[in-house]
Specification:
heterodimer, A: alpha+beta, Actin, Chain A, domain 4, six-stranded mixed β-sheet, 37% helix, flat, disordered N terminus, B: two-stranded antiparallel ribbon, 12 helices, 4% strand, ATPase_NBD (chain A), Actin (chain A), Actin/actin-like_CS (chain A), Actin_CS (chain A)
Chain lengths: 540, 363
């Protein structure tokens, strides 16, 4: 509130703006000028479609029974329902409500490739965040939204329409999340390396403006790692029983089969596959957050000393515990070399980077191969009977708990969206793989030669996946080795809040600056000037 | 005690906003925002209580002068000039470029990144810069020739003569810039080993530089050392032994001052070299100062000395060495010593012989 305490230095002037940063897995909402978002809610929703003709009363009964069974379930959850012909659709939003097991409730993400794909759902999520978490009247506050660099024009139009017509804000601004991250780290020139859950992106920012042509992004990010961790666990014959299944568990020695009791209340419910997957993902994420570690250098095997793998014990929610060492590092390695497994299994020689065109052709072929390969792998893993280390499995087939298959991994189809436009198309300039380090190197190399030193000197790591221990060192080593002529400096704040929510924090800084207030697009402008012109001229 | 200053929640309009600027004539106002103001605030308010000025409005600056933007190009008397077909530039594309330039305040990296015009040939950043500076130059030319009389045209042809004939833009060295970037590119493409090698070479050259500097300093010291003291007074004062010893002591004290520097210069000589240069080391400084080596020769008792001198004369050796080098002196010393010993022995023998004779004669 006290914005004028040191305006000469900070140039701050707060107009009580709101900032929303919608990420692939988390949506951050809060007031501009604060140093952390007030509310962080999952960017997922539960969707239950019930046939209204089929006596909705029975459904309600089941719901009641559930509530009797577990007191915690009584937590009031905001349910937004829309009537559609004969079916009733209810959305469940927010941490408390999302994780509650419900019959026929699908967990859906409204995001695709880091951008919004389901606008109705995202509007509800924003509405939930603003009215239930922040408890504000959005018509009184200017609103700053973040968007990805590769956001489509239709998406931006839609965002503006919703913001002005449904949320009804007085003023609005659409900021690039890379620019916000850059401001959050206090830099006007930087290379933003954002590794989130669905997307890993590398974006150069010059004078607070993104460079679109060199920017690129891949799907080799947190979710892809989850898939690889799942594959690894399947290989080790570990079955994942998420927390929601477990009533009680018994302590067992590491390596011994788990002994646990399932929640009996679930037997009468029809848990959907997406819900089970969503809950299993939490286990994989916990594994990732506690176990994953990055090697300081790429381990190629030849003429290299075998790295020292540190042992660590992981206890699964069902009580099964296991000591892991090498896999902790090997799974992280997929972030840096997404094709590593295919190469290893096929005994294919490493693709040469001597010839630009050949490398490219080869790449395409291997990609196709990989897809086929991973498909067959998926089938085999699905066919493979899981080891029965789950004892208390009741014979009732009523509660079919769908085992999650490696479709997690399927979310990560090798594709590179951002056109890597190369001005000086030297041979071997394209990333020889789509790993994180080579993306960074390639992006720096495709920028104007005069700004490369600024970029290499200001590499900002952000996004939750970059919190993997050793990742910053690894990126530093890789990039420095490839760009020997430049001085590489990695900026990776130790504060996890800054790392996870940097785009929001930057938006918060931006929207509380006195000089920023001339950039807001007012509702009147929206009505008078029109969307297309505003998008072209005002949000750059 | 100071009275607490109240804070007010005030609405304000920002004069820097385009909607505020453009809507001045009609009644509607631009975007009105609210903020907290301490006390009465520093700006005037209209009848609604809205502040009509804003502290941050003054930061709304543009790199490009408003008068030099696209409207100016349109007003140029001879737009044909600007659509010269060098590198396929058209009037429309030029306008597009100038819009970007004013939008992005001449940030060329960004302008080039956003440049998305279907031009007949691919553009590099240097093309854009060249075109921009060329058009600016021509604009300046036309305004000058329009506003001033004909005689000022003299300056323009002069400028033309500098570069116009060879390159379309006398202001932007496109080829040099491209070349510079190529060199820079090549510089950045060095491999880690090349960079390491280069760094090692740089360190080595620095070391060499430092060494040569040190050598020069040492040489200067040596030269200084070799410089004979200037003869300022007459030589007479040094002709007496007292004067000489005074001179010696003054040299000695000067030596003491220089001692540190000298010790730095001195290098270890081999025995052979020492002999060659006649250098000897003394355990302790001789307090008397300068002396003649021959004066240090062993002196015998007067009785013996005569005999020694006789012996030397007998051997054909002068009583004092003619060339008293260290070696000669040492040899001479040993000769003297031997003579002394032999004389003593002879004396003893003589004594014994006489005693023997006396004893024999007593028998």
């Amino acid at each position: 509130m006290a914005s004028t305490s040191a305006p000469a230095i900070y140039g701050g002037d707060e107009v009580s703006a709101l900032v929303i940063d919608t990420g692939s897995s988390w949506t951050r909402v809060g007031f501009a000028g604060e140093d952390a978002p007030k509310a962080v809610i999952p960017t997922y929703y539960g969707m239950r479609t019930t046939d209204v003709r089929n006596e909705s009363t029975t459904e309600d009964k089941i719901e009641d029974k559930d509530k009797d069974g577990d007191l915690e379930m009584k937590d009031a959850s905001p349910e937004n329902s829309l009537e559609q012909k004969n079916t009733k659709k209810s959305r469940f939003i927010g941490d408390e409500s999302l994780h509650l097991p419900r019959s026929d409730c699908e967990i859906i993400s409204p995001m695709e490739d880091g951008c919004v794909s389901d606008w109705d759902a995202i509007t509800e999520i924003w509405d939930y965040a603003l009215t239930h978490q922040l408890r504000v009247d959005p018509t009184e506050h200017p609103l700053l939204l973040t968007e990805q660099v590769w956001n489509s024009q239709e998406n931006r139009k839609r965002a503006m329409e919703i913001v002005f017509e449904e949320i009804n804000v007085p003023a609005f601004y659409l900021a690039k999340s890379a620019v916000c991250s850059s401001f959050a780290s206090g830099k006007a020139n930087s290379l933003i390396v954002d590794v989130g859950s669905a997307v890993a992106s590398v974006t150069p920012v010059i004078d607070g403006l993104v460079l679109n042509k060199p920017a690129c992004h891949t799907k080799y990010a947190g979710d892809y790692l989850n898939g690889k961790i799942f594959d690894m666990l399947v290989e080790q014959n570990v079955s994942i029983n998420p927390r929601y299944l477990i009533q009680s568990k018994t302590q067992v020695e590491p390596g011994q089969p788990s002994i646990f009791k399932r929640k009996s209340v679930l037997e009468s419910m029809k848990i959907t596959e997406s819900y089970h997957k969503f809950q299993s993902k939490l286990v994989l994420e916990e594994w990732k957050e506690t176990m994953s570690q990055a090697l300081p250098f790429a381990y190629t095997g030849a003429e290299q000393e075998e790295p020292v793998y540190e042992d660590r014990l992981f206890e699964f929610p069902d009580g099964y515990a296991s000591v892991m060492s090498e896999v902790r590092f090997k799974t992280t390695e997929f972030l840096f070399d997404p094709e590593i497994i295919e190469e290893a299994t096929d005994f294919r020689p490493a693709s040469s980077t001597t010839d630009f065109i050949r490398t490219n052709e080869k790449r395409e072929i291997t990609m196709e191969d990989d897809e086929v390969k991973s498909d067959t792998e998926r089938e085999t893993t699905a066919d493979k009977p899981l080891p029965d280390n789950t004892i208390a499995k009741t014979s009732t087939d009523a509660n079919v708990i769908p085992s999650i298959t490696a479709t997690e991994a399927a979310t990560a189809q090798p594709s590179i969206e951002g056109a890597i436009n190369n001005e000086f198309s030297a041979p071997g300039r394209r990333p020889h793989n789509l790993g994180l380090s080579s993306l960074i190197i390639d992006t720096i190399n495709s920028c104007d030669v005069d700004v490369r030193s600024h970029l290499a000197n200001n590499i900002v790591l952000t996004g939750g996946t970059t919190l993997i221990p050793g990742l910053a060192d690894r990126v530093n080593n890789d990039v420095q080795a490839a760009l020997a002529g430049l001085k590489v400096r990695i900026y990776a704040p130790g504060n996890t809040i800054e790392r996870k929510h940097s785009a929001w924090i930057g938006g918060s800084i931006l929207a509380s600056l006195g000089t920023f207030h001339q950039l807001w697009v007012s509702k009147k402008e929206y009505e008078e000037v029109g969307i297309d012109k505003l998008l072209e001229k005002r949000f750059r | 005690m100071q009275k607490p200053t109240p804070w007010h929640w005030r609405s304000f309009i920002n004069p820097a906003r385009s909607d505020t600027k453009n809507n001045n004539e009609n009644d509607s106002r631009g975007l009105t925002l609210h903020h907290w103001v301490r006390g009465e605030g520093q700006y005037d308010r209209d009848q609604d209580g809205t502040e009509v000025d804003y502290a941050f409005a003054k930061f709304d600056t543009k790199a490009l002068n408003e008068t030099l933007n696209t409207t100016e190009i349109a007003k140029t008397p001879n737009p044909v000039d600007l659509s010269e077909t060098e590198r396929g530039w058209t009037y429309e594309e030029t306008r597009y470029l100038f819009e970007l330039c004013s939008d992005y305040d001449l940030r060329w990296v960004v302008i080039y990144d956003r440049y998305d015009y279907k031009s007949p040939q691919p553009r590099v950043m240097e093309d854009l810069k060249e075109r921009y500076y060329y058009v600016m130059y021509r604009l300046g030319q036309s305004t000058v020739s329009n506003s001033l009389s004909a005689d000022t045209n003299n300056t323009i042809p002069a400028m033309n003569a500098v570069g116009m004939s060879s390159s379309p833009s006398p202001l932007f060295p496109r080829e040099a810039e491209l070349k510079r970037k190529q060199y820079l590119e090549r510089l950045l493409q060095r491999s880690p080993s090349e960079v390491a090698e280069e760094e090692a070479l740089v360190i080595k050259s620095r070391k060499l530089e430092a060494a040569s500097k040190r050598m020069l300093a040492e040489r200067a010291d040596l030269l200084h050392l070799l410089d004979a003291p200037q003869a300022s007074a007459s030589v007479n004062q040094y002709q007496s032994s007292q004067g000489l010893s005074q001179f010696a002591s003054s040299l000695l004290s000067a030596d003491k001052n220089k001692k540190k520097k000298i010790s730095k210069v001195a290098k270890k000589l081999s025995a052979k070299e020492e002999a060659a240069y006649g250098i000897s080391y003394h355990d302790k400084l001789v307090p008397v100062g300068v002396f003649l080596r021959s004066s240090k020769l062993t002196a015998f008792k007067p009785a013996v000395a005569a005999k020694v001198a006789a012996t030397l004369a007998e051997l054909g050796v002068p009583p004092k060495p003619v060339m008293p080098t260290a070696k000669v002196c040492a040899k001479f010393e040993s000769v003297l010593h031997s003579i002394g010993v032999l004389l003593e022995a002879k004396k003893q023998v003589d004594k014994l012989e006489t005693e023997l004779k006396i004893l024999k004669s007593k028998k």
